[in-house]
Write a structure and sequence with these properties.
This protein is an alpha/beta fold. Strand 4 and strand 5 form a beta hairpin. The radius of gyration is 19 Å and the shape is globular. The chain has a domain of about 170 residues: P-loop containing nucleotide triphosphate hydrolases (Rossmann fold, 3-Layer(aba) Sandwich). The protein contains 9 helices and 10 strands. Helix 2 crosses helix 3 and helix 4 packs parallel to helix 5. The termini are far apart. About 35% of the residues are buried. Strands 6-7-8-3-9-10 form a 6-stranded mixed β-sheet, sandwiched between helices. A 4-stranded antiparallel β-sheet has the order 2-1-4-5.
Length: about 270
């Protein structure tokens, strides 16, 4: 029996707020196999990023938790790398230095050029991030994460701030570099088309409070993928409709979450 290298078991997160405890996510159970690309998808505020931050070891579950290769996650680890919504590059360092910094902190030989070439930006190694477009900065952020050779790559809406054409290009870059049969990719997104294009499975989250896994959709499109082939696949309309129906069923009128109070207090 194959033991999943990544397991979320009974994952629950409770925040203390001025109005009392707020259960952001409750009893989230997910197993991810080697080589799988999984997207966590749901409405804004449903706890997607909370779940990802706990997997990354940047936050702690209140109950339950995350298990990697049979060991419970207690904090960040070298087998995981994160790409955030913002590039988070150090502006006073060149692109090469930003990538090399991550590698030298892990005691690995510097080879930024290889990873910049992987993501399609080999000619900007000596430039500063401030002079680059947001899409190019995200390429560098992805190269930095890949340079760590993580077994688990975590992506928190990395293309949300990009225009449509740049986002499409970055999705293709991502598919091109995430074909390792042993690497797991977990990506948070609210973009249905993006999720169906890049993922093997969609984890559909209900709305909070007490958000949880409401459905799981296995994506039927073969790899390697092209956008044209996916959009023309006979099962694409049904998959898209399935996700939209789920989201419409779980939609609720937007109201500020108690989590906003916590984030404002930390700012």
């Amino acid at each position: 029996m194959l033991i999943p290298p990544l397991e979320l078991t009974g994952l629950t997160k409770v925040f203390d707020t001025a109005s009392g405890p707020y259960v952001a996510v409750k009893d989230v159970n997910v197993q991810v196999l080697p080589g799988e690309f999984v997207c966590i998808l749901g409405h804004s505020g449903c706890g997607k990023s909370t779940v990802l931050s706990i997997v990354a070891g940047l936050d702690e579950a209140t109950y339950g938790g995350v298990v990697i290769d049979g060991t419970e996650v207690r904090g960040p680890g070298p087998e995981r790398a994160v790409v955030f919504q913002a590039p988070c590059l150090l502006p006073w360092l060149t692109v090469r230095q930003n990538v090399d910094l991550a590698r030298t902190r892990r005691g690995r030989q510097n080879d930024a050029s290889h990873y910049l070439e992987l993501v399609g930006v080999p000619d900007i190694a000596d430039e500063l991030p401030g002079g680059l477009s947001l899409g190019t900065q995200q390429c560098v952020s992805l190269a930095r994460a890949l340079s760590l050779k993580p077994r688990i790559l975590l992506l928190d809406e990395p293309f949300a701030q990009l225009d449509s054409l740049t986002r499409f290009s970055m999705q293709d870059v991502l598919l091109g570099v995430c074909g390792d049969p042993q690497r797991i990719v977990v990506m948070v997104t609210h973009d249905v088309d993006e999720a169906l294009y890049v993922a093997d499975r969609l984890i559909l989250m209900t709305d909070g409070p007490e958000a949880t896994v409401g459905d799981v959709l296995r994506v039927p499109f073969p790899r390697p993928r092209s956008r044209k082939a996916v959009l023309e696949h006979p099962e694409y309309p049904a998959c898209y409709r399935h996700v939209i129906d789920f989201l419409e069923h779980h939609v609720q009128q937007f109201r500020p979450s108690p989590i906003d109070e916590i984030l404002q207090g930390r700012a």
